[in-house]
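Notes, p. 3: input format for complexes.
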Amino acid sequence: MDVNVKDYLISRGIRPSVQRLAVMTYILENRIHPTVDDIFSALNPNIPTLSKTTIYNTLDLLVERGAIIVLDIDAKFKRYDGDTSLHAHFMCDSCHSVSDLEIKDTIFIQSNIPVGFTVRDVQLLYKGSCHRCSTEN
Ligand SMILES: [Zn+2]
Ligand SMILES: [Zn+2]
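Output follows (137 residues plus zinc ion):
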């Protein structure tokens, strides 16, 4: 098991159980912004005791402690991201893949917040056709 992931969880005040380590490691190693179903299908063959409920509870805890972020960009499913830094996403209309986009101009993000408003979360979403789907047409 990856020692760094263990330390990462501990630094966030999360007890690193085998199941939590498995979920966190999967999210960090698979930068696909997975859904609960993605995580379940990937981990269940190796850890049959890992139920979907446990995954939901683990994800809630990881989000609450700031270890991962949850994306509301998909109307049907929540997606989870191990990259907690500010970045944008590109969601493909055809294959529904979600890619990371670097934000080059953070001034743009910080501007236009009226006095008295407190920002809790910023989600920047681009939609269209990914490079794979674009070349298929
Ligand atoms: Zn696509
Ligand atoms: Zn991302």
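Residues 22 and 43 are 8 Å apart (CA to CA).
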